[in-house]
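Sequence design from tokenized structure. All designs in this work follow the same two-part layout: the structure record, then the generated sequence. An example of the structure record is given first.
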């Protein structure tokens, strides 16, 4: 479990599959700024922290280490998109259950 803000930003960026440059462009900062956040040299300001949470579909509490649940927020999606996301989650849960049963 990643505990520090810099580790969580790096981990979420890697899991999302975007580069530091792509993340920087989406936020409106330089790549070196994102790198400094990930290295723990500096920390994002409040507005950038909120933007990071939105990009990574999590909460600022998770990023800051106040919450260990890396929540996926589906706020802002259409009803159809939310239904598709929920179907995908249920499918993944079903696959996980099958995998767990086969290990026994």
């Amino acid at each position: 479990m990643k505990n520090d803000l810099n580790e969580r930003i790096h981990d979420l960026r890697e899991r999302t599959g975007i580069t530091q440059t792509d993340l920087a462009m989406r936020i409106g900062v330089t790549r070196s700024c994102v790198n400094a956040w990930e290295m723990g040299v500096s920390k994002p300001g409040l507005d950038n922290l909120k933007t990071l949470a939105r990009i990574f579909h999590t909460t600022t509490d998770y990023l800051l280490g106040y919450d260990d649940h890396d929540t996926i927020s589906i706020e802002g999606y259409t009803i159809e998109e939310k239904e598709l996301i929920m179907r995908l989650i249920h499918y993944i849960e079903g696959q996980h259950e099958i995998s767990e049963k086969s290990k026994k």
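The chain has two domains: 5-64, 74-104. We note this feature because it recurs in several other targets discussed in the main text.
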